[in-house]
Design brief:
The chain has two helices and 53 strands. The protein is mostly beta strands and 667 residues long. The strands form twelve sheets. Strands 8, 9, 10, 11, 16, 17, 19 and 24 form an eight-stranded antiparallel beta sheet that branches. Strands 13, 14, 15, 20, 23, 25, 26 and 27 form an eight-stranded antiparallel beta sheet that branches.
Length: 667
């Protein structure tokens, strides 16, 4: 029997102090020690490790190289975390134990003498002694190793007590269910037992936070040697939300593995993503077990510090075999008539009604029913299937394209002076579309006339028209459609920038140096509830609202202006940032930074910058920069060449080439 676990690996690179003692965990391990002095190097920048697990028979369960602290831990401390699996099959001695061996090797240590370049294959500092070295000339796992009993329905801990590192606690899945030919298991825990917390995620103070871990793994069955088109396990997750009083955090499990964060207002929720494919041997004549896992860890401390009421994690998970056309999914939903399909449902209060976390252990279909299986379908008595938003089959995680998942990019394009169908359209792409991908659908309307900007709210797609109208379209529509609503007013002309916030629609008119504010539900010919007009709004093309402030780009005089969110009349800006580049159009702000489209690049400023401030960094675009959207860790830029997506640090992640691009919006 193969039971999945969530393997929590934590290594802390120490200078003059030691790590937690293994006696705290109560699990005997090898007594290992090395000199401390070689690792008291000045300017430690990053540490990279390799991890591997083998079962009782000495067969590989999984392995992963280049697990670096900069991505999976606290960077300069060398502390990492990783969530994986183990094999609970008692195959030796029939003694009730399934001993797995965990290997950990230090690949490289980077310091000011051998700086971190972002490439883990580049050699690091050599002025230290490696206590856990992997011989590159062998294929067997090497390094420091410890043995753990992989027990179903239980948790255990593994501790590397080498003075320089430790491996944190290891928790286990404990129940599995069979979905037709797909074998899955799932669990959510905040503690290893009634008293010992899971402490995994690194918080703002670099300490490990109390952590909730959701683990999910499935296999569609083994591939036999020589078999053509064997099973191909595909894991799927729904939209993942942590709902707290007044705030909803959306977790994106498609992001790169390691530490991530979601920010709402002034509150940041740190989380981590782990995905992988097991290397486990499923027996003679079997080429692959096709077993894959997708795990999440969330900081309870971040929630505890910010909220005094309940915070609930909600999601659905399921899996299918990509080679099984009878159980295919389209746009995140199972296809076929008269079907029922099993899902794992997670509905767990991470904080109670008083805003306090607690020790919880939710086994699949256990007594708490926090993690359980349910059937959905399209039969008369069935609940309609939940849309799966994210999928992972062993390569890069991707969007399913399901409606309401926040997995689409909307790109308005058009021709000046040539309104209507055929020349003006909204192209809709999956969020991870690249290169010359074709849109999944196109929205056209006779009312579209050179669309300049867009915003999405729920199922509504707001588009500013050059002909002095704001159109509201159904974002799920396709083909030629009429607008749901049309907003026109004497209070704007040739509108560009749009932004939705707090039930209000902000419209920027660059040729009037004006921002007009309407109810989001406005319809027909209406007057603005307030307008802001001042010379500081010189060429107000882009607009962003957040944190009680209104940001407008200043295309005519460069830079951007900041007003109070409720400013009206002839009110001067509270501050102006003077950028050196012309054509300031797109603008977006986070809690700490402002992203300004300063053609041909994006300049990033501190949120509180003023005057002739210097950008804290530049995202190099080398093209005309129009509308900008920041979503999670990504900066999405509409350019003359198409939609370019960068990391916040400025690394180009995806390029989607779309003709005549001026605007972009996402859901």
């Amino acid at each position: 029997m193969r039971s999945q676990l969530h393997l929590l690996v934590g290594i802390c690179l120490l200078l003059p102090v030691a790590c937690d003692s293994p006696q705290e965990v109560g699990l005997e391990g090898p007594a290992l020690s090395i000199e401390v002095s070689p690792l008291t190097l000045a300017g430690v920048q990053n540490v990279c490790y390799s991890l591997a697990v083998i079962n009782e028979d000495g067969l590989p369960v999984w392995s992963k190289d280049h697990v670096c602290a900069g991505q999976y831990g606290n960077t300069t401390g060398g502390d990492i975390s990783y969530v994986g699996t183990c094999d609970a099959t008692d195959s030796v001695g029939n003694d009730g134990h399934a001993y797995n061996t965990v290997f950990l090797a230090i690949e490289n240590l980077y310091t000011s003498a051998a700086p971190w370049t972002g490439d883990p294959t580049v050699a690091g500092d050599t002025a230290w002694r490696n206590p856990c070295e992997d011989n590159a000339l062998t294929t067997q796992p090497e390094g420091c190793e410890l043995v753990v009993d992989c027990v179903e329905n239980a948790d255990a801990a593994v501790v590397f007590n080498l003075t320089v590192m430790r491996e944190a606690n290891q928790g286990f899945f404990d129940v599995a269910v069979n979905f037709e030919d797909i074998f899955c298991s799932a669990k959510l825990d905040t503690c290893y037992d009634e008293t010992k917390r899971i402490e995994l995620i690194h918080g703002a103070d670099a300490d490990r936070d109390w952590t909730a871990v959701f683990a999910f793994a499935c296999t569609a069955g083994p591939t036999r040697q020589g078999q053509v088109n064997g099973p191909d396990t595909n894991l799927m997750l729904s939209k993942i939300e942590v709902v707290c009083p007044g705030s909803t955090f959306v977790i994106d499990p498609r992001l790169a593995q390691g530490n991530r964060s979601a920010t709402v207002g002034a509150t940041t929720l740190n989380y981590a993503i782990y995905r992988g494919v097991e290397d486990l041997d499923c027996g003679t004549g079997v080429e692959s077990c096709n077993k894959k896992y997708w795990n999440l860890a969330l900081s309870l401390k971040d929630l505890d510090d910010a909220f005094s009421g309940a915070c609930t994690l909600s999601l659905h998970a399921t899996a299918n075999d990509l080679d099984d056309t009878a159980n295919a999914f389209t746009d995140g939903r199972p296809t076929g008539a008269g079907l029922t399909y099993p899902y794992v449902t997670v509905d767990v209060d991470l904080l109670d009604d008083n805003g306090a976390p607690s020790c919880q252990r939710h086994a699949l279909n256990g007594p708490t029913q926090g993690v359980k299986t349910e059937y959905f379908g399209n039969t008369a008595s069935a609940t309609a299937p939940t849309t799966m938003c994210h999928q992972y089959s062993g390569g890069a995680a991707s969007s399913t394209g399901g409606a309401g998942c926040g997995g689409h990019i909307y790109v308005p394009t058009g021709s000046f002076g040539a309104p209507g169908v055929g020349t003006n359209r909204i192209r809709v792409y999956n969020a991870d579309a690249t290169d010359f991908a074709q849109p999944i659908r196109t929205i056209e309307s006779p009312a579209l006339d050179f669309p300049a900007w867009c915003q999405v709210s729920g199922d509504d797609l707001f588009v500013s028209n050059w002909n002095s109208q704001i159109l509201v379209l159904d974002k799920n529509a396709g083909g030629a459609v009429a607008p749901l609503r049309t907003i026109s007013s004497n209070d704007f002309s040739n509108p560009h920038g749009l932004f939705l916030d707090g039930g209000e629609l902000f419209v920027a008119s660059p040729y009037q140096n004006k921002v007009s504010v309407f109810p989001q539900s406005a319809n027909g010919f209406v007057a603005a509830t307030r307008t802001l007009t001042h010379s500081d709004l010189n060429g107000s093309t882009g607009v962003f609202v957040g944190g009680g402030e209104l940001f407008t780009s200043r295309e005519n005089t460069r830079g951007y202006a900041v007003h109070d969110r409720g400013a009206s009349g002839n009110t001067a800006a509270s501050r102006i940032v003077e950028d050196a580049r012309p054509q300031a159009r797109g603008i977006w702000a986070t809690d700490t930074e402002v992203f300004l489209g300063a053609t041909p690049d994006v300049h990033v400023y501190a949120r509180n910058a003023a005057g002739a401030a210097t950008p804290i960094r530049t995202i190099t675009v080398q093209d005309q920069v129009n509308q900008i959207v920041v979503k999670g860790d990504e900066v999405i830029v509409a350019t003359s060449s198409g939609i370019m997506t960068y990391s916040k640090a400025g690394v180009l992640l995806r390029a989607l080439y779309v003709p005549v691009t001026y605007a972009v919006c996402v859901d």
